[in-house]
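Progress narrative, Year 2. Work on GAL3A protein from Prunella himalayana advanced from sequence curation to structure prediction during this period.
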Amino acid sequence: MAKRVAVVLAGCGVFDGSEIHEASAVLVHLSREGAQAEVYAPNIPQMHVVDHVKGQPTPEQRNVLVESARIARGNIKDLAMLDVKGLDALIIPGGFGVAKNLSTWATQGKNCSVSKEVEGVLRAFHAAHKPIGLCCISPVLAAKIFPGCEVTVGHDTECEQWPYAKTAEAMKELGCRHVNSQVTEVHVDTRNLLVSTSAFMCNAPIHHVHDGIGNMVREVLRLA
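Result:
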């Protein structure tokens, strides 16, 4: 039978939701590997809405589930309906929505809180010993919830190629082990069944990001 994988989105758009290319890559690679994706998002207001042309917040208000449905082509469920028993794995793409709508990382860094619903889902998969795939900024969720876990967000030294490297330092302060990696590589925490890859934490060609996410998806399915 096809593996059933929950994909949790955080809106639609890199600056205030899920990173669309990352979410699409996850769905494409799951399809290519013969897995069945089930897309979920929390039915909550976004922290804010960003004009992606100007890069500035606007006074609009939008809903995370409604916006995520754009990526899922309408085939999406409220995260509150997720039942870990019928699923084999979990994947959370990145984008600032992870740090703004699924957690408060964007405003509080390592002192953030993770939404109770999202934390509950992560803990449920972890307790059931089912693999969790994380890319871009989403490994911070694991760093916050699972002390001592191993993840990657790319590199821990800031430079033009790795503009968000300070994220790795903040994760280390939470007690997790950060493993430097290239954009096409993944890190597998075999104890916690976490598979992570840096994606757009790196200034890399989009096909390299796509390839890294493909490697993450394949490792998640291998562990499932």
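Residues 4-223 form a domain with the Rossmann fold fold (CATH 3.40.50.880). The radius of gyration is 16 Å.
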